[in-house]
Structure formats: structure tokens, C-alpha cells
Amino acid sequence: MRTNSLLPRLLIGAYLVVFFGYLLGPLIVMSITAFNSPSFPKMTPWECLTFEWFDVLARDERILTGIENSLIVGVGTVILSVIMGLSGALMLTQIWPKLRATYYTIVIAPILIPGVVLGISTLVFWDRISIMLGMSTGGILHNGIFLTILGQSTFIASYCMLVFIARLQRFDTGLTEAALDLGATPVQAFRKILLPFMKPAIGSAAVLAFLASFENYNTTTFTFGKFPTLTIELAQKVRYGINPSISALAFIIIVLTIIGALIHEIYRRRQQLALANGAPVAAVSGGFQLPKIFRGNPAAIILVLLALGGASTIWFSQSYSPGVCKMDVREQKRLIQEERIKEIRAKRQLELQQKQLKSPDSSGDIKSDAPVTQSPGKGAFGNVFDPGNLDKAAPKSETEKPAESPGKGAFGDVFAPKNLDKATPKDD
Amino acid sequence: MNIAQLFRDYFVKNGIGLGTFLLVAVLFWVVILIILPQLSMLDFSFRHHLPPPEMGGPKDTYTIEHYKYLVLGAPGADTSYNVVDLGVFGRTLLAAFFVTILDLILCYPLAYYLGQSKGGGFIRLLVLLLIIPYWINEILRAFAFRIIFGDSGLINEVMLTMGLISDPIDFIRANVALYAGLGYAYILLMIFPIYNVIESLDRNQIEAARDMGASWWRIHWRVVIPYAKPGISSGCTMVFMLSAGALAAPQILGGPSSLWFTQIIYQWFNTGGNWPRGAAFAVVLLVACIVIVLGMMRLFKVKIGDIGK
């Protein structure tokens, strides 16, 4: 077979590495920045291992309120979307066949409509309704949480419906009919037969709905009013000045996601094992059999390792203090700065000597200093450095840099003659 | 079968209580959450921009000034067309198209690989790894790309240290960060539809084609891709719609000189304070997306029922 020869296998391997590097790399980098001490999230240069950003995060009032609002909105959205999604899916099986295609297009459309449009239409619609009803702007129709739940449910219900449709396809309608024939009321048949059958789907639809609601931005950004959710707060923070406490939050979310995914994986694997052995699911998922889980179950092992890692991190964070390291870094930075200042001073001295050497024999040079302000980098200093008394490299970089961005970088600044006097007192 | 009969059957089958409940829930969703808001947005976009007390008053008449504004610009402007907004609009659609193609190229091989392998622990692990980034907040994903592509970001720092470049490259201004971030955000929506379809492809078909002496690209072109077409178009539709309607990634990763059309809508609703104009722009975005998607579906002969599978 094709995959048995070496080259294609190598290619596939390389492709997988690139693909998953793209997929997971950003998350890993972001997680690492949560533990680095610079106040702007950076991975390089590595300065100090620190946990202070988790502290900063835990003390951030706006983030905490955001989480609270997100939870309220999430619960509301889950309830509304699951009910509407389930009704929508049941309706699809019973609707007049001629209407079915139209109906399906309408209820699937919210997935395809841009979230921004959904948010705007929700906002505009309820605003109009409240004007029509003559309600004040403080009423429930202007309440951010109410609007956000409605706006999000519009499309999250479609997701839920897809989950329910997939499950309903395997439902044997004969069961309901039998129950009805035996004298059950429709409500009884629904509660005792259809609902238990749909239970796993309801569970996964609820999880899906909650996660979708929790991370929604496009719709919420128009409807949130006075109740910003966590995602809104994060967006504001990221857009206007960022610090690594956001990385810390991301790290927490990533760890929670991984744990959730692993638990799900373990659960599924046990179910599959049970089904393969012919045992009823309930019998296997009843007791927690520790040794059996570990056998041939890498997910469980990873989970335990993760827990151990977390515990040891917490222990480490209590015994380790980054203060010393930070002092070191500050000291180092100071040294580097001093070095730079010395360098600049030496350069300037040289330059002054040059000037003193030059100015006596050609007074025109002083005049030519004037246009420097108009075109820094190409004027006077080109002249000064021209004789070639200096090594070639230095003037080159000096003449190029200011031309691109005058006043940027340490040297560009200092060598602009205007700044000469300004810089001097600082150095001394 | 007439409609009255249909309703009678429906209520006999579900009972009065349950039947009413289902009907109310579905009607609430379809009419109050989906249809009426869209219509009211459409209606609103044809209104004048008025202060709240004057709404519904004599001045509240229909107008097409907002659509005119999008095409012709403000009255008395230098140019005869609204070059800025129309340019942004075109660029947004073009960029969304570009992101879609990028995702398709990136995802097709993996979807094929996952779909044709026989399963097992390694494949399950890969699927798990695919899903995890999707549950991380959209904002945080964009933020991660800013850490990587920023002025003092990872790539610039590494290249500076290695001496490959002397000045940091402005990835944000060049929109590299934006495209990478957008492509990243919707990768999963491209991969799973294709994967689901390819998984059901009979492996014997590929074997047969190979036995007949078809080269590998011919197998893909004549066997796999035609079979996977519903999945491919479904994935492309979703990625295109979502990237054209994206707001977070352009806000966080977009360069200072390049706007996304959604950002203009956002500005009319917030700092601009002209809701009807924002609504008009949103209608234009919605219509453009629908037209493009329907056109693509017609072109590739796929039905709307295939989407979401």
C-alpha cells in the first residue's frame, strides 16, 4: 500500500506536525505567557517564573462580574434553546410534508446568518416593540440579559435541533404507538418513552448550548446592555491594553477544557467497552473500578498526571517567590541600560571631537546643520561622518535608521541634534 | 389531506396540552426570534435617523438614504461613490473567500487521512486535539495570535535573536495575523463535514481506481472529491459566512488601516450612533452572503439540506 513506503509516511507525518502545530501552538504559547513576569504577555525573553497574574485575575472585579453574567445568560440560553430545539426537531417529523423543506430552511438559517446580524435584529426588534408598547427604556425589553438570552437562543436552538434530529432518526415510533394503544395519554407516552430515549441527546445539547453561549461574542456585543458577559469583558481588555492575567484566564480555561474532554473520552470508552461485552451500560457506569480504568486507558493516566501536576504547581507556587528573580532581572536591565548610556556617551564624545576638528577649517559646516530638522539622517551627520575617520558600520546604521523613523530607538533619538541638550542632563 | 384534518391529527397524536406546547415553542422560535426580528431590521433600515421621541411621528417615513449612503457616500463628498465603505465591503468578502480557500487546502488532507484510517487510539487522540481549541473562547484565540504576531511577539523576537531580520516585521499591519487567526477560528467547521462524508466512502472504490492504474491526484479528482462534495460545500459555506461576519478577530488582529465590514456596522451602532444606517449595512451584508452562498450551491449542485449534516 501507499502508506507503507517511507516518503509518503514522512510527508504525512510532517503535515500532521505542521497542522497540529498551527492548531495547538498558539494555545501553548499563550499558556506559557501566563507564567512570565513582564507586564505585557510575552514568551521571549523569559524573565521570571511567576504566579502573580493569577492573583491579578482573581482580584479583577470586572472579570468576576462578567463570569457571573455569563453563567446567568448561559443557564437561560440552555433552557430556552433545548426546549425550542427539541420542539423544533419533533415538529420536523410531524409537519405537513409540503412545508417541510421551507420549515427546515428557516430553522437552519440562524446558523448561517452572521452573528452580528442576529444581534442587531434582536436589538432593533425589541426596541421597536417597547416603543410600540410605550414602555420606558429601563424596562425588561431593554434588559441586557433578557436580550442576550433571546439573541443567543435564536441560533443556539438550531445547533440543539441538529443534535436532536440525529438522535430522533434512530427512534422507533412503534414504541410510542404501542404505548398509546395500551391506553397511555400522549403526555405519558412522551414522558415515559420519548424523553428517556432523548436523554443523552438532551445532555449533549445542553453542554453544547452552554459552551456556545459562554463564548459568543458577535451577537452579545449588540445586546448586552449593562450586563457585559465574560467574553465582552475579555474583548474590551484585549483591545485596550493587555496584561498576562488574560493569559492566566486562558490557561485555566484550557486546563478545564482538557479535563472535560478527557472525562468525556473515558466515559465514552467505558460505554463502548460495556456495549462490546454485551452488558447494559448502567451496570458498568455504576461503580468506579479504579484498576480497570487504568489498564490501557491513556486518557485516565493523562488525567491523573494532570491532577498531580496541578497539585505540585500549587505547592510550588506557595513555596516559591519570584521576588528575587525579579530583582535580578531589574538589575540586569539597569546594567544593560547603563551600558547603552556609556556607549552613547562615548559616541557623542567622539562626535564632539570630530566637530571641533572640523569646524575651524570650514565654517560652512555649521550652516549645513540647520536643515537637519527637515530631513534627519541625510544632512549634517552624513557630513560629519564622511571623512571616514569612523568605522564604516556605525554611520551606515545611523544614516538609515532616522530616515525611516525619526526619533525611534535609542540612537536615532540621541543623534538628532535637537535632542542633544535634552538628553545630556539625563545621562549625567 | 386538508389543513384542518392535519391539525386534528396532530392534536390527536400529541394531545391538546403537549401539542399546544410544541406548537407555541416552535412558533415563538420561528416567528418571534427568527422572522420578525429580521423583518423589523429590514424595515428599520429604510427609516430616517430620528431621536426616540419622534419615532412613529409624522417624520418617521420610509427612505433609502442609508443604502444611497453606502453606494454614493455622503452628499457633497469629493468622490461620486462611497469608495471607503464599498472598498471595505469588497475587501471583506474577498478576504473571507481567501480564508475559506486557505482552510479548505489545509483541512482536506487531514479530513481524508482521518476518514480513511481505520480508527484506533491515535486517530481518536487527533480528533480530541482538534476539538479542544474549538472550545477556547474566540477572544482568547485571537489574543493568542496577537502574542505570537505582535511587534514584540514571539516570531519577531525569535527572528531578531537569530539575526534573520534587523527590524520587527509588522504582521498586524500586513494582515498576516488576521488571516491566520480567522483561518484558525473556523478550521473545525471545515474539517468535520468533509471528514463525515469521506468516512462513509467505500474504500473499495479507491482500491478499484488504483488497480485500474489511476494516479493519486486522479483518484482524488475523480473519486474522492466528487463524493465529498456535499461535505466540502457545507464546510466552505460555514467558513465563508462566519469569516465574513466575524467581528472579534478583525477588532483584535486587524491592522489600523484595514477595516472589516462588520466593524463599520459596529461603529454605526456604537460610536456612530446611527442605528438605521447600521441596520441597512447589516442587511447588505446578509443579502450579499446569502446570494454568494446560494450561487455557490447552484454552481456545485448541492442542496441546503446537506448543510449541518
TrEMBL record, chain A:
Residues 393-403, 419-428 have a biased composition (Basic and acidic residues). SUPFAM superfamilies: MetI-like. It comes from the Bacteria. Residues 67-264 form the ABC transmembrane type-1 domain. It is a multi-pass membrane protein. It holds the Pfam family BPD_transp_1. Residues 353-428 are annotated as: Disordered. The keyword Cytoplasm does not apply. Its main location: membrane. The chain crosses the membrane at residues 12-35, 71-92, 104-125, 145-166, 193-214, 246-263, 299-317. It is found in: Cell membrane. The keyword Chaperone does not apply. Belongs to the binding-protein-dependent transport system permease family. CysTW subfamily. This is ABC transporter permease subunit.
Automatic annotation (TrEMBL), chain B:
SUPFAM superfamilies: MetI-like. It is found in: Cell membrane. The chain crosses the membrane at residues 12-36, 93-114, 121-137, 143-164, 176-195, 278-300. GO terms for biological process: transmembrane transport. Residues 89-296 form the ABC transmembrane type-1 domain. InterPro entries: MetI-like, MetI-like_sf. Its main location: membrane. The keyword Membrane applies. It is a multi-pass membrane protein. GO terms for cellular component: plasma membrane. Keywords: Cell membrane, Membrane, Transmembrane, Transmembrane helix, Transport. Belongs to the binding-protein-dependent transport system permease family. CysTW subfamily. This is ABC transporter permease subunit. It comes from Sneathiella litorea.
